[in-house]
Amino acid sequence: MPEGIGPRRVPSRWRRETYYGRPQLKPAPFNNSLVGSYVFLAGLSGAAQLLATLLDLARGRLAASAVRRGRYLALLAPTIGAACLIGDLHTPQRFYNMLRLYKSTSPMSIGSWLLVAFGAFAVPTAIVQFLTERVRMLRPMRAVARVAQIPASLAGAGLSTYTASLFSATSAPGWAAAPKSLAVRFGAASVASAAVAMSLGEGRRRTGRDLDAIAVTALAVELAATLASDETQRRAGIGGGPSNEQIVGIIVPLGLFLTSLLLPRHRSRALSAMASLGTLGASLAMRIGVMEEGEQSARLPETSMRFAQPDNLPR
After folding, report:
1. Are 156 and 46 in contact (CB under 8 A)?
2. Are 74 and 126 in contact (CB under 8 A)?
3. How far is CA 83 from the centre of its chain?
4. What share of the chain in percent tops pLDDT 70?
5. Contact, 164 vs 179, CB < 8 A?
6. Could you give the CA distance from residue 263 to residue 272 in angstroms, rounded to a whole number?
7. 251 touches 282 (CB < 8 A)
């Protein structure tokens, strides 16, 4: 038999032979950059709409500038995010075909309808926000935005986390090993990125501090979920969990935010802005990194076969 061809032994706990070292799974046919960007924008938009609604209901005019930014940020998912998603499908008609029916057992079907529902309420909310700021006689229409923002925020909450279910429902061990912690990671990262995007340029000190506090809390939750995900994958013996870069991408902005709380206002805002930009970059990189981890885990036969053992399957 020629050298390099034939059964090979796999290290670690899996002690049986693979079929000529070939993977038993096909990696998901996603464009990591396009889909990763969509996941990032969907999470940011959905969480921004949710935070804007909560601020509007709790603070009213005192948080008007942050609410405005949140409503405008919500437009990223139905516009640029949808373009990234449709671009990955290669054929735009495929997105339309997904809307021809609804499957409650399909995360992709649920996500498609979530995106449409979110856009159906978030876009009118932003349009009314824009018009009432520029045309005085239309200001009574603000009530329309306050009503439409409620269902928009509910759809936004689902939009910011459903992609974790979409990945976890596949056979890729890197995604399926820790579905709960992956959902928490995506949800927390969405809230953190939305909070920092809304805090950039915020004139009211109290609102800016509140948004920074939300970001700090979300980053702490994301860090805990990331470490939990790494431990879950380690116990399953599949490796390829969250990278050190992803963990550092959470710790550094978190440290900058905490430091900014101890400094005078003019210095704290500069440090907060640095932390905000770092959070946005790390959030995007995390989504793309998660996609690459799932793709890599599907290519390794020892990983997929080891994960397929009954004691390693997620419960």
Report:
1. yes
2. yes
3. 17
4. 86
5. yes
6. 10
7. no
